[in-house]
Amino acid sequence: MNVTSIVVFGDQLNRSIGALDSADRERDTVVMVESANLLAGGRHQQRNHLVVTAMRRFAGELTTAGFQVDYRSADSIEAGIRAHIDEHNPDDLRATEPNSRAARRLCLRLDITQVRSNQFLCHHDEFTRWADGRNQLKMETFYRWTRSNLGYLMDGDQPLGGTWNLDAENREPPPDDPSIFTAPPASDLDDVDQQVLTDLPAGPGATPVGVWATSRRAALSRLRHFIDNELVRFGPYEDAMTKHSWHLAHSVLSPYLNLGLLMPGEVCDRVEAAYREGDIPLNSAEGFIRQVIGWREYVWGLYWLWPDHADSNELDHHRPLPPMFTGEAATDMACMADTFQSLHDRAWVHHIPRLMLLSNFANLYGIEPKAVLRWMSDTYIDAAEWVMVPNVMGMALWADGGRMATKPYVSGGAYINRMSDYCSDCRFNPKKRTGEDACPFTTLYWDFMHRHQERLKSNHRMQRAVANLNRLSDVDETLARAEDVIQAVGEGRL
């Protein structure tokens, strides 16, 4: 009888994914490896805890279901697989297509057969065919194409309600009463959690307290909570920020999708069902499904399409991470201080603090893109190379010069003031660009526009901002203030 070993990587933790879906529990052996190299360094300890605990629980579930599981720790995944080969000498070694280039190169080195992955709704070779011959790969165009193919929220070949994208209805500032948002359920830490915490190396961030689900059953509980309690409010408040709620109406499901504990199809199916049953409005259902089948699948496709994306630095930014990012100094900016605190406590903030606070500031200040990429990859609970590279280099920092996004997502303090409640308690004034109490975002926004005006003046979405720069009566004073702000940030004094 042929002996088959199936390698399961730590972000493929689902019985229905690829090679594992057709596994024979009587004959096949499942191989899983904890890599000491991946767990070392500066990664947030809650991320390491989530990944390792979820892997161990999944291995236990497979064993209970009757599978033979070879679960081992090694310096690297490759070392662990080679040790399995030496000990078991399988006739066939296979794995679901991994979610990173490095892991796929590993499969080639070890002659591991790669089974086509179904972990995403649009396989990257389908995305490549869609992209072929297009001058610009707009997410909105891809979203409409894939939504038509998948059939979500469709009435024949037209979108329900007659409009593809309801984002214009989803830009409310935070409500006066933030208690309307209910936190996702938490899990009590059990013996598995405690053993993982004992085994893991020390890392930055707060110790886990049960915020993150580490099993499929717990992840499904979080999904039910979101649909039953928060999805109705997700649409209007998806772009809002508030110091009174770390989660607002967001699903907080991205870590589970990225590890395979949840599958994108089942999540979208349940959201559409809730809409069709009349429980939630169309703008909330469409806004959420667009994030999954539009943005998430789009980013996945771009990762495989552009292998050189991580090397982008079209704006020629080279400053190192300032002390507020590394935790060596605090900041007086209320919005940034709250965001860093949330990252310390939970390794998570939603997409607007990521884009319009952290990334916006990194761009205005001029941090080297790869430094931002490394920092965010170490910090976020849902970090994966496939999602971080396009998001950071393309959307967040415009480091690719517009290859992905049509304009840099930069703003001054006015946007933050409009979409959050941070500015009322901050010592900086979002309306001012000069003076000691000028908002650093506002000052550095005009400095950014001044530095890059030659590049941006031909961008149709930035022409008005460049024109407004040239109408300022206090450009010299603003640029002088920007120099002071940049020095203070670099020295950890702001």
Notes on the structure:
With 494 residues, the chain is of the alpha/beta class. The protein has 3 domains: 4-115, 3-Layer(aba) Sandwich (Rossmann fold), CATH 3.40.50.620; 124-305, Serine Threonine Protein Phosphatase 5, Tetratricopeptide repeat (Alpha Horseshoe); 311-490, DNA Cyclobutane Dipyrimidine Photolyase, subunit A, domain 3 (Orthogonal Bundle). The chain has 22 helices and 7 strands. The strands form 2 sheets. A 5-stranded parallel β-sheet has the order 3-2-1-4-5, with helices on both faces. It has a two-stranded antiparallel ribbon with strand order 6-7. The longest helix is centred in the middle third of the chain and has 24 residues, at 282-305.
Concise account of the structure shown:
The chain is of the alpha/beta class and 494 residues long.
Task: Give a topology summary.
Layout: E1 4-7, H1 18-21, E2 29-35, H2 36-39, H3 45-64, E3 68-74, H4 77-88, E4 92-96, H5 101-109, E5 113-115, H6 124-131, H7 139-150, E6 154-155, E7 158-159, H8 191-199, H9 216-237, H10 254-259, H11 264-276, H12 282-305, H13 323-326, H14 334-346, H15 351-365, H16 369-379, H17 385-396, H18 413-419, H19 440-451, H20 453-456, H21 463-469, H22 475-490
Parallel strand pairs: 1-2, 1-4, 2-3, 4-5
Antiparallel strand pairs: 6-7
Helix pairs in contact: 3-8, 6-12, 7-12, 9-12, 11-12, 12-17, 15-19, 16-17, 19-22
